[in-house]
Write a structure and sequence with these properties.
single chain; mainly alpha; two-stranded antiparallel sheet; 73% helix; globular
Length: 86
C-alpha cells in the first residue's frame, strides 16, 4: 500500500468515477484501475461496486475510507515536516 494508491482511492470517492479520478490526477484510467486493484488485494476485497453510472463504496470501502484519509493526512504532514527540517 502506498500514498498513490490511497490518494487514488480518495479521488475516486470524491469524483464518483474512475475516469474522472484519472483526469483529476493526470494519469491514464488503466493506471487508476491498477492502483485500486493493488489496494484491494492489500485490504482483502473490493472497495467499490462498479456500475454503469459511476461507482459506489462497498461496506469494506466505507469502513476503510476514514483510515485512508487519515493516512494521507499523516503522510503529507510528514513530508511537510521533512521539507521544513532541511
Amino acid at each position: 500500500m502506498d500514498l498513490e494508491q490511497l490518494a487514488t482511492f480518495d479521488r475516486i470517492v470524491r469524483e464518483g468515477s474512475f475516469s474522472r479520478a484519472a483526469w483529476a490526477l493526470g494519469v491514464a484510467q488503466p493506471t487508476v484501475s491498477a492502483r485500486i486493484q493493488a489496494l484491494e488485494r492489500t485490504v482483502g476485497g473490493p472497495l467499490f461496486r462498479r456500475g454503469g453510472r459511476g461507482v459506489a463504496l462497498t461496506d469494506l470501502g466505507l469502513s476503510f475510507l476514514p483510515y485512508a484519509r487519515r493516512a494521507i493526512e499523516v503522510l503529507e504532514a510528514g513530508v511537510t515536516a521533512a521539507r521544513q527540517a532541511q
